[in-house]
Amino acid sequence: MSSHPPVWLHQALSQARFTPYRLAASGDMERALRLYWWNVEVSAALYGPLHCLEVALRNALNERLQTAYDRADWWESAPLTPDGRFKVERAQTNARKNLRRGRRRPLVPDDVVAELTFGFWVGLLSRTNDRAFWVPTLHRAFTGYSGRRDILYKEFLSMVLLRNRVMHYEPVHHRDLRTDHLTVYRLMEYIRPELAVEARSLDRVPSVLARRHEVCAGDHACSF
């Protein structure tokens, strides 16, 4: 067991970033580094399923809201919370910046939709938005679900937290990733079961999870 990191490690990755892995490996720096690379590998594998879930949710909710308010820019008429309104305004600002960098054309609603975050869409399922959005409209977006809104919201919120950790290169190895993986597909099936079938056929998360022990022990090479 080695307790001394390579010279380049803290310079490249930073001590603060690497410390959680060292602690998880009980101070064994070689095992900690293998755990770090495995965390990168499993995060890369999770990107695809999370991508599918986020885009499916966005499009399902957006479609329902466009129909309910009879306009593509439904947020101009919808009773958004102050936080929701702030997130829309930020999305509009970001969309305009993107247009200025590329081909100049008028801003269209799809530009704003693409900039709205996973957290924004999940927030529409919260208790605060129960009467404004869930009861009259958004429950219809989940054709495969007939349970309570709060349970659905809690599961989606967990996926937002997972997605943010993956996208910001944070540790996810401490989570129950097998349960997370099942949750991604269960939620996807509520929205678009056909998409879930397609995504599963491309998914490598199970194989990455299965070889964690071997990778961290140094018996299997890690790759991403």
Q: Which structural class fits the helix and strand makeup? A: mainly alpha
Secondary-structure element string: HHHHHHHHHHHH
Q: What's the oligomerization state? A: single chain
Number of beta strands:
0
| SS field, number of helical segments | 12
Write down the overall mean pLDDT: 93
Distance between the termini: 25 Å
Radius of gyration: 21 Å
Residue fraction in strands: under 5%
Largest sheet: none
Overall form:
globular
Helical content class = 55-70%
Any idea how many domains?
A: 1
Could you name the ranges where pLDDT drops below 50 across 5 or more consecutive residues? Answer: none
Protein name: Abi family protein
Organism: Actinomadura rubrisoli
Question: What's this, in brief?
Answer:
Helices cover 68% and strands 0% of the residues. The protein is mostly helical. It has one domain.
What does this protein look like?
The structure is a single chain. The chain is mostly helical. It has one domain (43-205). The chain is 68% helix and 0% strand. It contains twelve helices and no strands. It has helices at 7-13, 15-24, 29-69, 82-101, 109-115, 118-123, 130-134, 149-167, 177-191, 193-202, 205-210, 212-217. The model has no long low-confidence stretch (mean pLDDT 93).
